[in-house]
Amino acid sequence: MPDKEKHTIKKVIQNIDLDSPSVNFADKVMAEVNTTATDEMLSDTVLGLLLKKNSLETPNPDFSY
Length: 65
Description:
elongated, 2 helices, mainly alpha
C-alpha cells in the first residue's frame, strides 16, 4: 500500500469520533450478566431435579448375551 494511502487512512481513523457510553452503561451490562447467570442457575436446578426424579435406565443384565 503506498504511503499516501496509508496516510489518508490514518487521518480518517484519527478523525472518527467514538460514541461514549451512557452514564449507567456498567449498571446495564451487570444487570444483563446477573439475569443471564440467574437463568443458567435456574436451568441447572431444573435439570438437576429432573435427573434426580427420573433416574437413568440400566440395561437388562442379559442385554449383551
